Structures are given as C-alpha cells and as structure tokens.
Amino acid sequence: MLRPLLLLSALIGLLPGAEQQFVGSATLDISSCPISYYGEQFTTLYVNASDDGFKACFNMSMDCIEIEFVANGDSVDSVSLTNTTPIYRDISACRQSGVLYFYDDEISSDPDTCSTEYCDSVATIQTDGCPPLQRCHGNNTCKFYPICTVTGPAVIDFNDQLKTVEDRCGYTLLTGSPIENLTVVANFRERRRRDVSFLDSVTLRLQGQDDVHLEQGGIVKEGNTTLTINGLAILGNSVLIFVNPTGVTVYVWHSESITLVFFDGNTALIFYTGPAELDPELGGLCANSSTSVSDERLPEDIGSSCEVQYNDTADSSINCTMMTERCNLLLEEPFTACHNHTDPESYVNACIDTLCKYPAVDGLNCQFQEAYARDCSLLSINILDSWRSTAGCSPPQSFCQGRICSDHEFCAETISGGIGCFCRAIFAFPYRPNDALGHPTVCEENSASVTLVGCLLEEKGIDYTMLHLNDPTCTGQIDELDHMVTFSYNGSNTCGTEVMANNSQLIYMNSIVGNNSVSDNITRQDQVYIDFSCVFTQPDVNTVTFRIKDSSVIEKITSGTWNYTLTMKAYTDAGRTQAVDSNTEVQLNQLIWVQLETDGLDDGLVALVTDSCWATDQAESLRYNLIVDGCANPDDQTVNVVGNGAGTSNYFFFNMFQFSRSSSEVSVHCKVNLCGNLNQTCTPNCNGASRRRRSAKLKYEDEAPAFISMTWTH
Q1: How many domains does the chain have?
Q2: What is the 3-state secondary structure (H, E, C) of 24-54?
Q3: Does 541 or 150 have the greater pLDDT score?
Q4: Alpha-carbon distances, residue 129 vs 111, 138, 160, 258 (angstroms)
Q5: Residue 310 has pLDDT above 70, yes or no
Q6: Which sign, positive or negative, has the C-alpha torsion 284, 286, 288, 292?
Q7: Which of 261, 301, 474, 584 is a plausible cystine mate for 169, CB 3.0–4.6 Å?
Q8: Diameter of the chain by CA atoms?
C-alpha cells in the first residue's frame, strides 16, 4: 500500500499547474525525477484526465495508477488536488516475464506438479502446491506419500492402479534414481491351485551387499544365510530390519529418500518418500502405472517355465456372490475414514478377482481388508477394528513363525487350527488323480522302502510320527529339508514283514498303519492302512490309499415346554459365517464350531445353558461325551465351550472325529435347559468343581429340557 501512495504524491507534484483544472491527456518527461515502480525505473509518464477520473501510466497502457475523486462519499467531476484526498486503485498488481497480472489473477498452473502461481492481494507472486505430507500424483491430484500394496496376485501401485500377476515369476516392484542402490523384487508362486499365483517372498537387492530375502514365517535371509533377529538389526550402513510376530519391516536410507518394505508372509507394503521431482525416474510395477506386468519380469526368469499358464477346474464350492459381498465391506464404515487418501476400488476388484476363483482359506477371506487397513495405518489413519467382528476376522497374529517349509511347500493353517507345510499345486498334481500319498515301493534284495510325501500327509491331518510298519517299533524317518517320510525294512530287521510263496516267486509284504485314536472309541484322523509288497523276481508295489467322503448335516429339533425356537448350526470358521450344509466337505480333525441359539426368550430373565452334548454312531451303540454338566469334556483338549449360561445363545467347538469301529456317520446330540438369571448367575463353574448350586426357585427348567441333534454322514 505504501508504494502507490508515494507514487501519487509524486504525480501531484509533477502535474503542470497543480492548482488548476486539468482535462485531457499529456506525456510528461520526468527524467529529472524518475519514479521506481515495482522494481523498474521510469522517466516518462502518460497521464489522462476525464470526467471518470485520472489515470497515470508509465508505458502507454500498462503499469497504471487510476484515481477516482470522491467528496462526501460521492464521485465528483473536478477537484482541487491541493485540498482533496484522492482514492486510488492500482490496476497492474504483479509483473512476470513482461506480463502484467491483476490481483488474484492465476499466472500459471502445472497439473503434473499440482502447483499454481497467482498474484495475491498485496501484489506478491505466490505459489500453491500439495499440502504437507502429500505428494502430487498428476492431474492436479494431491495424495499422501505413495504406498504400493502387493497381496495375493495383485499389485496396487503408488497411483492406486491395479495390476495382476498371472504366473510364478519374479517382478521388479521399485527401482531407479534416486534409490539406485536398491531394487525391490516380488516373487510369486502358486499355492493350492496352479492357475492362481500368490506373493511368496520379497527380495531387496542392495548395491555392494548380499540380497536380503523376506520369506514366510518371519524368516530373513542375507544371501543364503538365515538371520536370527530379535527386534532390531542393522545391515551395512543404510539398512535397518525390525522383526515382530506380525511381520518384518525393512528401512533403507539413501541421501535423498527413504524406502520402507513390510512383509507378513502374505502382503507386502512399499512406502517411499523422496524428492518429488525425481519420482518420474523411478521404475517398477509400483512406480510406473503405464508399464505392463510382463515388462517388469526379471531377466533371469524370461523364457523359464515360471510363465507357463495353467487352467485348473473351477472350484464349484465358491459362492462368488457371497465373496463379492465380503470384498465390498471395504466400501463401508469404518473403511470410509481412509477413502479420501487411499482409493478402495483397486482393493475391492483385486479381492473379488481372487476370491471368485480361489477358496477363502489360509485367512484369504480377510487378507484384502487387512492390507487396506495397514495401508491406512502407514498414513496415520487409524481404522477401528469393528470390521473384524462383522467379517469374522481375527486380529493380526504371528503367522507360521519359525516354521520352515521346503521349496515345494507353503505354510498354511491346518483344518485343526494349527499351522503346517502344504504341497504346492504343481508339485502335488501328479499325486492327486490317484489320491496317492507317496512314491512307489523301492525294492532291493531282502529290503524295501516306501517314501510318503510329508505335505500330502499334512493336508489330510496325518501325523507321520503316529505311523509305523507291522512292527510298531519301525517308524518313519523324515528328511528335514524336503519333509519326505521314509519307511523301510531289511534283512536284519524285517519289521514284521511277511513272506509268501507264489509259484516260483517270493512276495515280501508289509503295511504302514496308523495309531491315531483319541480313545478306544473315537479317532480324529483317517484310518491309515497302506499295503506294500516286493516280489523277489520283479519289484512291484500294491498301495491302498484312502480319502474322506463328502459329509452332510441333518438337523432335528425338539422344543421344550417353553414357547421358543431352538436351532443348532455348525460352521467351519471362528466367526461362524460359513455354515455347514449338505454340500460342505467336513474332514477328520477339522475344527468345527456348533452354535445353539434360541428365539423368543428374554435374555434379561432367562439364560440358555447347554447341559450336555455327546456323539453317537448310527446304531447309537457307541457314545463319546463332548460337554458334561455344562463344561467341556476334560479328557478332550479340543473341546471348548463359549458363552454357556451367559445369554440366550452359546456355542462350542471341537476337532471332528469318527468312531473307530464305525465309519458310517457321527451324530451330535445336545441337551439344553433354561435358567432364570435374575439375581443369580447361570454360568457353569468349569474350574474343576461341580456346577454351582442354584436356589429351588430359580433353578433349571429340567421338567421339559430341549434336545437337538446333528448328523455327519461319511
């Protein structure tokens, strides 16, 4: 504001006859008293006086001062400059590259850098860009620092664009200046299906150092050496590794950037921050949205069998509509808190593409939600955990920690809820058509051996340590590298081998049998009985294999005298969202959840107490207790009862079994009672003592208990 005032004072002094009326235009030589205006000096002044006001310019039509004369708030046609205070308006606010701009005029805009130059209200050129903690992603779009997510077969890059890896090769995720000392590589392998690839490991290639490999189970390798890391470790001068039960985080420093890589065995997150002007120099699937997937395949993998495509039979058990609904949870609260910063669309599409052709096992039904939530957490956006209960997902936990699988295996959750090494689909493919468990018998003179595949046994829930030959002291020996289990005998120890003469041949016969019974009545593993034999003149093998047949569920309900409905349902997941029906295959030793629920009772007055549950065979000649006096059978550590007597529903879970002397079916029966919970507790005491005694007035309604049954047919 000071500059125009000084200029106005100078103009008044320069006007000829300042106390006389001046109308018209004139050119004034002011070289004897030049005026500096916004950084430039002028020696000529162009003035114009009219009824509309007075205007003085330094170069004909630009760099002007316009003056309007006002008296008592109204414009006047003529004034005496010696006794009137003028009101001025500067009509040329800013100058750049010889161009004049008015107040609030936009000078330039670059959508690639999200920057805008404009002339502000005090005639100063200002530049606007992305807010702090955000970066320009082109098209005038500002986002938080870029994060790339790789989960399953999906790569969601820094610009939230989705790419899908369809083979089992290595791919460059991030490389180039200014991180020329680091290249991040993703390695994809198949799991249960040959035609769907999953992120299997992450490799960090560092200049002047051995490669760092991040593998399942929190395993970190430097070159071929497995590192033992408890908490923090520093490699070289610029690499920090942090290991905790939920995953591995690696920080790599460069003079101009920091790269963070997180891997939990299923999902990798790559977080990069560095000079924005150098971002275009970055390459890889994470940084370059325009590159094709095949362009980033590692040179050493080009031409190898890793790019061979397979087409397995579609999985008829997958309900794509249901899976789509699960994936669409990402569009709802509480995920909406992060939508402005991370677009959920690519996550939803990747989730649907994967779960509509690959079964929702090994935590895959929660994997994409977990990946999105972790992405948001890196941006300091905390998404509440309420979605977990809705989706039936457990909090992140240590996954396969310390479990080392061989190259043809991957780590996954077993049907009993533990972890194990399962066969990769390509490796297992030759065995599956015949339901074989291993290799043919190797016969030599007076000796023989049979090798079973450890991961095939693991898939069926068979503990190899419980298997033996006819002689129980002859057990299998496992190879710690490839997990093959070998059973053998020789002339010095025949292990119960029987020899039979058949014409001119001698036949050596033995069997691999299992001792897997939980009790005299039941077993939770397949009955293993594999015959193998050797003919003295010609090696041969006779192998008997086994399988679990499809299971079905039949519900029968008998209500008590209370006017309420009692239902009993079985599920295959902890969230009790995947119900067992007539098409569900239930395997031995699989973890099963059974929920008992009432409708029509007031949970403020009455509680449902599961008094007892037991299993019988088809003829009901064999019985096995699951719940006794409201508590889990103390002799069976797989049985757990949850919420008994706490409301109008409760549930229990156990590992599936069959009766040792019967393979037809298993029926589960439950007796439930009602308990008035006003002024008393109805929860059974399962701490070793008998159930708490209740008053006669508020006792169980034992006169008409409800019974309910469920049957699995094998």
Answers
A1: 5
A2: EEEEEECCCCCEEECCEEECEEEEEEECCEE
A3: 150
A4: 10, 12, 21, 22
A5: yes
A6: positive
A7: 301
A8: 145
Helical segments of 356-435, H only:
364-378, 386-391, 425-428
Confidence of residue 63 (pLDDT cuts 50, 70, 90): low
Distances (CA, A) of 630 to 456, 634, 677, 688: 38, 12, 16, 12
Q: Give pLDDT tens digits for 353-411.
A: 999 999 998 889 999 999 999 998 888 888 877 888 888 888 877 778 778 899 999 99
Q: What are the percentages of helix, strand and coil residues in the chain, rounded to 5?
A: 15, 40, 45
Whose tokens are 């039949």? That residue is 554
Residues 483-493 pLDDT 10s: 999 999 987 78
Cβ-proximal residues to 321 (8 Å cutoff; 6+ apart), any chain: none
Are both 43 and 175 inside the same structural domain? Answer: no
Helix 364-378 to helix 320-327 angle, to the nearest 10 degrees? 20
Task: Extract the tokens encoding 412.
Answer: 């996954």
Read off the tokens for 419.
């972890």
Radius of gyration of the chain (CA): 40
Identify the top-confidence range among 524-533, 578-587, 665-674: 665-674
Q: Which domain holds residue 362?
A: 320-391
Closest by Cα among 375, 303, 392, 313 to 338:
375
pLDDT range class, residue 2, cuts 50, 70, 90? very low
**Inside any domain, residue 399:** no
Return the closest-CA partner of residue 615 out of 633, 631, 637: 633
Indicate the pTM of the whole model: 0.66
